[in-house]
Specification:
The structure is a homodimer of 118-residue chains. In chain A, 49% of the residues lie in helices and 15% in strands. Chain A has 118 residues and is α+β, with helices and mostly antiparallel strands. In chain A, the strands form two sheets. Chain A has a two-stranded antiparallel sheet with strand order 1-2. In chain A, strands 3-4 form a two-stranded antiparallel ribbon. In chain A, helix 2 crosses helix 4. Chain A is globular, with a radius of gyration of 16 Å. The two termini of chain A are 27 Å apart. Chains A and B meet through helix 1, helix 2 and helix 5 of A and helix 1, helix 2 and helix 5 of B. Chain A binds a DNA duplex (30 and 30 nucleotides) through helix 4.
DNA sequence: TAATCATTTCGATGATTCTCGAAATATAGG
DNA sequence: CCTATATTTCGAGAATCATCGAAATGATTA
């Protein structure tokens, strides 16, 4: 029943930018297997490279610093993972983060918190 | 199976600000009954006033324009409803908006979209 | 109608943020 | 070791945003 250590506001904020939301939509639509290590760390096994994300989102053939910046923000919020695989960087969504967000919303749907009522 | 007309990015963005998230948390913790009209419109039946929200969030005894601004943004994104009740304005969460967000997240959890895979 | 209460709008200021191009870093291959 | 490839960091400009106090609006009460 641990309140997981995700920063809910930071994740919402990361998804609040239209460009980042499109990046995230592409990542989750792309088959992104992840491996959960003993430490609990999650790392992508396979997923699109930064260049592929860039291509899908901007249509450009080369990598833009803008997409790199957005990926960094998504990663810092915990929503995605990025790890080097040879020459490339592979991206994948962090399912645990999605679960945390879903739980937050479910919490509000039920209003179970029973907080200070007026 | 209608793609509801909520702007997902706008809702995420609205929840991305810490102050707004606290406002929203208070609103959903507060017993906020809503009535759904025939038109599909949702309006709060009972809920905290702007002044009460202000008190809970800022601790101040008077209404601040900052909270009013944040409430407006939450309302424009569709997350909450605000309606006049006599001298006061009553706030309530829009359950339909929460459902839309939850569905969006579930969608990504299942990766049902089957979008362009790499 | 005057006065009061509740809330929003206006105007301004400082801080973030999104975006872009150029330079820097890191890895692989010859 | 040198070059090519993939990606990030740096620096900057324009835009947006959060916050605040003051003024304006809307509704109730006297």
């Amino acid at each position: 029943m641990r309140e997981n250590d995700f920063d809910i506001a930071a994740m919402f904020r990361a998804l609040g930018d239209p460009t980042r939301l499109r990046i995230f939509d592409f990542l989750r639509s792309c088959c992104c297997l992840v491996a959960v290590e003993e430490t609990g760390a999650v790392r992508p096994v396979v997923g699109p490279t930064v260049g592929e994300v860039c291509c899908h989102v901007t249509g450009a053939e080369s990598i833009t610093s803008t997409v790199s910046h957005h990926l960094k923000e998504l990663r810092l919020s915990g929503l995605i993972t990025v790890e080097r695989r040879g020459k490339n960087m592979l991206c994948g969504v962090n399912r645990a983060a999605l679960t945390a967000l879903a739980e937050y919303l479910a919490q509000s749907a039920n209003a179970e918190t029973g907080g200070d009522c007026c």
